[in-house]
From TrEMBL:
Catalysis performed (reactions): (R)-glycerate + NADP(+) = 3-hydroxypyruvate + NADPH + H(+); (R)-glycerate + NAD(+) = 3-hydroxypyruvate + NADH + H(+); glycolate + NADP(+) = glyoxylate + NADPH + H(+)
Job of this protein: Catalyzes the NADPH-dependent reduction of glyoxylate and hydroxypyruvate into glycolate and glycerate, respectively.
Similarity comment: family membership: Belongs to the D-isomer specific 2-hydroxyacid dehydrogenase family. GhrB subfamily.
Gene that encodes it: ghrB
Main location: cytoplasm
UniProt protein name: Glyoxylate/hydroxypyruvate reductase B
CDD domains in UniProt: GDH
Stored InterPro entries: D-isomer_2-hydroxyacid_DH, D-isomer_2_OHA_DH_cat_dom, D-isomer_DH_CS, D-isomer_DH_NAD-bd, Glyo/OHPyrv_Rdtase_B, NAD(P)-bd_dom_sf
Amino acid sequence: MKPSVVLYKSLPEDLRVRLDAHFNVTEINGLTPENIAAHAEAFRQAEGILGSGGKVDVEFLQQAPKLRAASTISVGYDTFDVAALNDKGIVLMHTPTVLTETVADTMMALVLSSARRVVELAERVKAGEWQKNIGPDWFGIDVHHKKLGILGMGRIGLALAQRAHLGFSMPILYNARKHHQEAEDRFDAQYCDLDTLLAESDFLCISLPLTAETHHLIGREQLAKMKPSAILINAGRGPVVDEQALVDALKDGTIFAAGLDVFEQEPLPVNSELLKLRNVVPLPHIGSATHETRYGMARDAVDNLIAALTGKVEKNCVNPQVLKQG
Ligand SMILES: NC(=O)C1=CN([C@@H]2O[C@H](COP(=O)(O)OP(=O)(O)OC[C@H]3O[C@@H](n4cnc5c(N)ncnc54)[C@H](O)[C@@H]3O)[C@@H](O)[C@H]2O)C=CC1
Ligand SMILES: O=C(O)C(=O)CO
């Protein structure tokens, strides 16, 4: 008999066919408490789950006693309680690599649009405000040759360093848990401590995962150490930055601008103060959101679940130590 799985995000048709060939699939629209309650029997039987968003914590795992594998259509896995999965011997699979270049493109788009005020000025043109030759109040700041600081030099940080260094002649500074030899060799990236990164970066680009350590890593004190001309880019996870402290820093000129793909609460509430600020470029968490990349992520997530439930995991496993226990 085919193993039962719950799919909580819809898939392109060919990938759904592939999933059906291996598993008995129950599809639901999101891993919400209501959907979990409404499909209690499917979760009781599920050996695998596949989707993105929604919390997989101790409480959820009580509803899914047969679970052996979880496959998330994302590289970030901060919504999973990995320790609880480890305790129960459940394999967690994710989708690194396939989205790296696309997310780095998004970060570069945020760098350019916030420095050159692309969104704000386009809105002013559309509103009919371009009536005469523009003056300095429409000017932005240069990107090329400025210092780009990367907080979290992993896969995405490296791809951003490539764009910034080779494409825009930007010196690269970075902070991460350890030195990144490839970034240093290929893009002359200089490792530094967080305080130096804050003080010296013209662009502080965050590509960190959300963990207990990185939660509010950038708060009021850290923002105060940045240059008044600096721009903060966050495409890691919203809660890495204390959002109220950021709003205040953007309002009082502590920093120049921000380009944000991620927020403490998503979707960003319509009454968020960030939306009232001209020096903010807010995006709806589109780091990986191209047709090609989202398809690739879904394909990898399907392959990951098949590998995990057939005991053939070779890559993309968050907790490989669980495999050794089996
Ligand atoms: N906006 C979006 O749509 C997307 C956001 N992301 C986010 O980007 C994150 C990074 O993705 P990858 O580059 O693939 O991951 P990665 O694991 O390759 O890189 C993460 C980097 O962060 C560093 N790091 C972790 N904790 C740290 C700490 N406390 N202090 C300093 N550095 C620390 C690590 O050393 C590593 O260099 C994901 O976890 C996810 O949260 C990823 C994809 C899309
Ligand atoms: O993959 C992730 O972690 C995202 O945030 C969406 O691509």
